[in-house]
Design goal:
This protein is of the alpha/beta class. Helices cover 32% and strands 18% of the residues. Among the domains are: 4-55, N-terminal domain of TfIIb; 156-331, Dimethylsulfoxide Reductase, domain 2 (3-Layer(aba) Sandwich), CATH 3.40.228; 563-693, Barwin-like endoglucanases. The strands form eight sheets. It has a seven-stranded mixed sheet. The chain has a six-stranded mixed β-barrel with strand order 22-26-23-25-24-29. 54% of the residues are buried.
Length: 695
């Protein structure tokens, strides 16, 4: 077959960069940015460029595989459905629906058919044991937007091109792009252009990141204390009379917020976050006094136990300075389906908290940190079966060793994935997944967060291996086997579902989308959609929430630890490294000198007698790891930085041999017992550790 080009888009992160894929004999010859894409291609990176290596890996799972005493062996789809269906049937009959759990990892969120059919299947059998990777890094944002605006999945996109004063809290778009819950293509370059034209950029991060190097001011708080700095800014703005409220929405809780902050000393908040009161006041007054601007809190604080407070206070700052739905501020983008329909889909019956720890349900999903307890604790509702889609929680979640022990106790464990990862060692079945280059669909969910009304079909560039089916077919066939067919037994697939959803909106049709090879811009960028939603819902913006106030008081009552023998650990990414779900694949984990290293502040190293490349042991309450020292002038003293996403092994499913491992499994140091009380997120950033030199 002669070489040909397929125009599609990447499905590794939210940026969805347009791709020009050159294919020859069903193998990728090259992947380049699709410069004819009218919306997004300038954020093209190594992850998309090397996607063909992942799709063509010799260690992919290419057929259903059943675990036997001698390892995994190939099996047919009929055997898979019959065995899994029979086991599930017995578990459901004996123990009820909550004995079956589901977990969706990051790759499933980027497959429309996979994530929709996964969740619909679990709802069809009636279980409330639904878990998601969002409880690792996104729950704080969902809790904050749900409490304030009534929509847990709300994204407020930054308007970079008109912003005069930008405060970025724990986010590093120079590496990770502007794509966490709302994407702004080419956003980092656009922000740099704005700064060159006179805009102020304040970066709040314990490490002087690649973004902070271009800031007009870098503020380095103690890890997991961003909330105290933001609360200080709120206090200054309220007391200085700098408040400007939006006229389009009712505002509740301003009086309570002012009363609470009025009783606080700014010096106390400064002591908690390790930033001087003068700096906090300077940033607050500069932000409130600017014509336009916004505050945006990212994954840095969201990965900590105080992430919900930080996300909430960042949103409060935008509301009380009238920066929502304003040019140069943050706004709700126009969705390809009516927001009324989306809200109706997201509204589900209230779910009870977990039976063991009482962690709240967020956006329909339970916290990953509680899954081992739900498996290991006997009694009614004990999880005995797990269906995992695209997940590796032993590596990406907290307390991986305990998670591994729990997974080994399951009566049934099914994993759908491209590869056999560390979390799948105890699986009874490995089910092959499609790579995004083998997929044909329109992900209307991901395109709801575009800055501009734009949508594109995912086009199949490669034919999948003969025995690899779309993941949604597994759920469809399993539901039929259990006598619980989805969609009332109608013949439904992701294409039909997307077409019906789009038709209900009347903005764009599936045929129109498919007709454009490089994607379709179907409207003008507009603002005010949040005001429309709040008006129809007859809902105010709630600045003050009792449950948040309880947690604030608890944090304020705790004396900050200043033990010189303790460090707080934070993560980082590098431009040349893959996402966590891809680091284990051969050829995709490019050389990176930080993979086996821990960054230590020069002052801390001198105090401990450490030199460059010394070997150290990092100890926490749950584990210990070894690493090489890198001396850094960019790290706040008392902080350790370890690259996120490394350290998990990849296995050859044919013989169980470990074929690839590189770096440090840093999440082993994180305890599943310490979580954000409001969101259930573990302390992936901010965990307390100690450092000991290896002689």
């Amino acid at each position: 077959m002669s070489a040909h080009h397929v125009f599609t888009h990447c499905l590794i992160c939210e940026q969805l960069c347009g791709l020009d894929v050159e294919v020859e004999n069903n193998r990728v010859a090259s992947i380049r940015p699709d410069k004819a894409n009218p919306y997004t291609w300038r954020d093209f990176c190594i992850k998309g460029q090397r996607a063909g290596e992942v799709a063509g890996s010799p260690w992919r799972i290419t057929s259903p595989m059943r675990r036997t005493d001698s390892g995994f062996v190939r099996a047919g789809w009929g055997d898979l459905i019959e065995d899994v269906g029979g086991r599930l049937e017995r578990i459901l009959d004996r123990h009820g629906p909550d004995a079956v759990a589901g977990y969706a990892g990051n790759p499933f969120g980027f497959s429309y058919g996979s994530v929709v059919w996964h969740n619909l299947f679990l709802m069809q059998i009636g279980t409330q044991q639904i878990y998601s990777v969002q409880s690792i890094d996104s729950n704080a944002k969902h809790v904050a937007t749900g409490a304030m605006f009534g929509v847990e999945m709300l994204a407020l996109v930054p308007d970079l091109d008109l912003a005069d004063f930008v405060v970025l809290v724990g986010t590093n778009p120079a590496v990770s792009k502007f794509n966490w819950g709302g994407k702004v293509p080419n956003g980092w370059r656009r922000l740099k252009d704005r700064v060159r034209n006179g805009a102020q950029l304040v970066v709040v991060d314990p490490r002087c990141t690649e973004t902070a190097e271009h800031a007009t001011l870098h503020v380095a708080p103690i890890p997991d204390s961003h909330w105290a700095l933001l609360l200080g800014m709120v206090k200054v703005i309220l007391e200085d009379g700098l408040v400007r409220l939006p006229a389009e929405a009712a505002i509740d809780g301003l009086t309570e917020l002012a009363d609470f902050t009025g009783r606080l000393e700014l010096s106390k908040l400064a002591g908690i976050c390790g930033v001087s009161a003068d700096v906090i006041a300077e940033v607050a007054r500069g932000f409130a006094g600017s014509k336009t601007g916004f505050v945006m809190a990212g994954t840095g604080p969201a990965l900590g136990t105080n992430g919900t407070l930080a996300q909430w206070l960042a949103l409060v700052l935008n509301v009380i300075t009238d920066r929502i739905e304003r040019p140069g501020g943050r706004f709700m983008p126009n969705w390809p389906v009516p927001w009324q329909n989306r809200l109706a889909q997201m509204r589900k019956p209230p779910q009870r908290t977990s039976r063991v720890r009482g962690i709240p349900v967020v956006a329909g999903n339970r916290a990953l940190a509680e899954l081992p307890d739900e498996i290991l604790t006997e009694g009614e509702g004990q999880v005995r079966a797990l269906i995992m889609g695209g997940g590796n929680p032993v590596s990406t979640g907290p307390d991986g060793e305990r998670m591994d022990r729990a997974l080994a106790e399951l009566d049934l464990f099914v994993s759908l994935d491209l590869f056999q990862r560390e979390s799948h060692r105890h699986a009874h079945w490995l089910v092959p997944a499609q790579h995004f280059l083998e997929r044909e669909e329109v992900h209307i969910g991901l395109h709801a967060y575009n800055e501009l009304p734009f949508i594109q079909t995912t086009r199949r560039a490669l034919e999948p291996p003969p025995e690899v089916k779309p993941e949604w077919m597994f759920y469809r066939d399993l539901a039929v086997r259990l006598g619980k067919p989805m969609f009332g037994g109608q013949d439904m697939d992701p294409t039909k579902l997307a077409a019906a959803s789009l038709a209900g909106g009347g903005l764009v049709t599936l045929d129109a989308i498919r007709a454009e090879d490089h994607g379709l811009v179907y409207g003008e960028r507009s603002m005010g959609h949040l005001w429309d939603m709040l008006s129809v819902e007859e809902r105010p913006i709630r600045l003050w929430l009792d449950e948040f106030a309880v947690e604030l008081r608890r944090q304020l009552a705790q004396a900050p630890s200043r033990n010189p023998d303790e460090f707080r650990m934070v993560s980082r990414r590098r431009n040349g490294m893959m996402n966590a779900s891809l680091t284990e694949t051969s050829g995709s984990a490019v050389p990176d000198e930080t993979a086996d290293c821990v960054e230590v502040a020069i002052a801390d190293a001198a105090r401990l007698g450490l030199a460059e490349c010394d070997r150290v042991v990092i100890k926490s309450a749950s584990a210990s790891l070894e690493a090489n020292v890198v001396l850094s002038e960019h790290v706040r003293p008392g902080t350790l930085v370890i690259a996120h996403g490394w350290g998990s092994p990849l296995y050859n499913p044919a013989n169980g041999a470990e074929v690839f491992r590189k770096g440090i499994p840093r999440n082993r140091l994180v305890s599943g017992a310490e979580v954000d009380a409001l969101s259930g997120v573990p302390a992936l950033n901010g965990s307390v550790v100690q450092l000991v030199r290896v002689p």
